[in-house]
Amino acid sequence: MAKKQKFLTAKMLQSLSLGALCAIGAFAMGIETAGDLHPFAKSEAALQELLHVGSDLRGDVNGNGTIDSEDAYLLYEFSEGLETPAADELRRGDTDGDLHLTASDLGYVLHALSTR
Ligand SMILES: [Ca+2]
Ligand SMILES: [Ca+2]
Known about the structure:
- By secondary structure, the chain is mostly helical.
- The chain has two domains: 1-36; 44-114, Type 1 dockerin domain.
- It has helices at residues 2-34, 44-51, 69-79, 87-93, 103-114; strands spanning 52-53, 56-57.
- Strands 1-2 form a two-stranded antiparallel sheet.
- The chain is elongated.
């Protein structure tokens, strides 16, 4: 009887280990694919149109009239929670309108920079 209990314990440990490996693997895959977004399937003309909302340049976080590397740097800091955006920085930097500054907004700015 004691031998059977030991066998079950080892089997349970094996199952738990397998479960833990699956959880860790799923978590790792989630992290790996979290930044794998493709929000820019639109044409170049549509993208340029999206860059302008009223008189504000979308993605121009610091409001200097152009999308530049400083905007990308600010979005990185805001999206990582290293800094807190002011209300106007949030308004100008929120390129997808979700009221948050995230990697998606940073991706938008980086794409705009890369297509100049
Ligand atoms: Ca700027
Ligand atoms: Ca956003």
